[in-house]
Amino acid sequence: MNRKTIFALTLAGLLSVAALQGQNFSEDEIRWGSRPYVPTMPGAIRVQTNMVEVGVVVRDSRGQTLGGLQQSDFEVFDEGKPQKIAFFVVENSPRAAAPVEPSAAPAVPGATPAPIPPTPKPRYVAMYFDDTSMRQGDVTSSAKAAGQFVRESMEPGDRIGIFTSSTTVSLSFTDDKQKLLDAIGKVQTHMRRSDRGPGSCPRMSVLQAYEIMKTGRIHTPAFDLAMAEMAQCGNCTIHAADCVMNQAQETLSLAEQYSQDTMGMVTDVIRYLGKMQGRRMFLLASSGFWTQTLGTKQDKLMEAALHSNVVINSLDAKGLSAETPAGDLADGPPPSLGLRVDLTALQEQYRHDAAKVVNDPMSYLAEGTGGRFFHNSNDLGRGMREMAAAPEFSYVLGFSPDGVKPNGAFHALKVKLANPRDVTLEARRGYYAPSARKEKDNGPQAMLEKLERTVLAGDSPAEIPVQLATEPAKLATGESALKVSVHVDVSNLPFQRRKDRSVERLFFVTALFDSENHFLTGVEGMMDLSLKDATLAQISTQGVDAKLSLQAPPGSYRLRQVVEEIATGRVTAISRQVQIQ
């Protein structure tokens, strides 16, 4: 099962329960995942109506947010070119003594009126526990800090979601403190370890493995240390240098694999967070992960955050007790095994340096999105409060860039104070211009856009045979819900042939609208079919089923069910009045 499907299955527990009813096929033949659906809304991170918004937090030398600044105090540069600030808003948290009214650029006779500043929006905070990098002590400390924030510092209007790298715990955005505390209490370590087992020898750090792979079999400190340890192990049945190279390759490969999985999961949650209609913060609690050889993947993660207008704050869960580097594939190197004093010191130095290197991506992501990186402290409670709490004073600057080409290019931003002083500014480091590139009519993006247009439309295309059944239900928590059963006749779907399998993909969107046609809630699902001949023959007669649940208060709603198949983009949509009791 790939990472995308795992993430979908994780979020399935948030608003839906999905299954293939009464059909027992192997997991590699029919894969099903679902997650909450929110119609895509334009994000302020992109240039919309020729306007770019930049959130800024100014802190003094003690780390306190600085209030009382005016529009004239700021300067904004786009690709090094100064920009005229079109609007300026001061946003205060409830801790501020008094509200500060927004101001706009002074009117100029005959000039186009200044844009209306954005109104304050609710805040969505995704608390992400990288539990595959953290030991139990790190998990316990960061979870305790998160629980303390929820109990004592969560502000009215905040919606918090809980997510984990292992996907074992997830909770969609809610203001229910008890649900949040229950979810946080379930977070446990799922630290990944080497397939060699805890007794393997030598146990090299990923940094040492990287240096060995970079230089090969020449006499470097990294290689000589590994050779000395290998001589003490006595478990190599081939040439010692071959054993060292093999282990270095395995250690680095596993670190890269695990880090790619983590960054992929983080990217998925960021994109999900980006659909929320409000201010967006991603809080990453991690013991670090390896990105020295994964620069492109790391840049993609940053790009997703900037496109989604998400601020990333990072918390180093290791604190000051970083005895072994996060991202190591086991319990750290074994004892010195009688090594020379200089080699023992070198071993400790690699462990120490590796613990710093795996912090680099957390610092990079925070700095690039205008967030903060809390590290070198065991007071994780303070770190969580400082990062997750809405700043007492923050500012929103808006400007209209001239001559921006619709090429999807990245634009570097720089925000300065007109009169420099001993302060630090937190602001995202760039934005992406809109793209005029058109997808092919049957390209993936075009199909997703078609799917969403169909969800929001009122017509009823019927290009795939689909049957729909609904019934009101109660969740285990006692909350009202609607059960939805979707049956698809696949006998005429254009399956593609890949080796010995017939493959097809189906997208499902189930959405509820109120009496005024306002979207309330929804679930999107993906069904991947990779069928053996016998299975294809069976479901061509039986069809396939998907069951989902939507949580909503009692009332009358319009249900919109859309199914799209990917091979040709055919779609069916059904609208039905439903009652939830």
In a nutshell, what does this entry contain?
This protein has about 575 residues and is α+β, with helices and mostly antiparallel strands. It has helices at about 5-15, 135-150, 175-185, 205-215, 220-235, 240-275, 295-305, 340-355, 360-370, 380-390, 445-455, 535-540, and strands spanning about 30-35, 50-60, 75-80, 80-85, 85-90, 105, 125-130, 160-165, 170-175, 280-285, 310-315, 375, 395-400, 410-415, 425, 430, 465-475, 480-490, 495-500, 500-515, 520-530, 545-550, 555-565, 570-580.
Strand % is: 25-35%
Determine the number of helices (DSSP H or I, runs of at least 4 residues): 12
The percent range for helix content is 25-40%
Shape, per Cα inertia axes: globular
> pLDDT average, as an integer?
79
Record field, number of beta strands? 24
Derived from helix and strand composition plus strand pairing, the structural class reads alpha+beta
Largest sheet: 6 strands, antiparallel
Q: What is the rounded Rg?
A: 27 Å
- Note poorly predicted spans: 1-22, 41-49, 95-108, 194-199, 322-336, 437-442
Distance between the termini: 37 Å
Task: Note down, in words, how this protein is organized.
With 581 residues, the protein is α+β, with helices and mostly antiparallel strands. The protein has helices at residues 3-15, 136-152, 177-185, 206-215, 221-233, 240-273, 295-307, 341-357, 360-369, 380-388, 444-456, 533-542; strands at 30-36, 52-59, 74-78, 81-83, 85-92, 103-104, 123-129, 158-164, 170-174, 279-286, 311-316, 373-374, 393-399, 410-417, 424-427, 430-432, 466-474, 480-488, 496-498, 501-513, 519-531, 544-551, 555-565, 571-580. It is built from 12 helices and 24 strands.
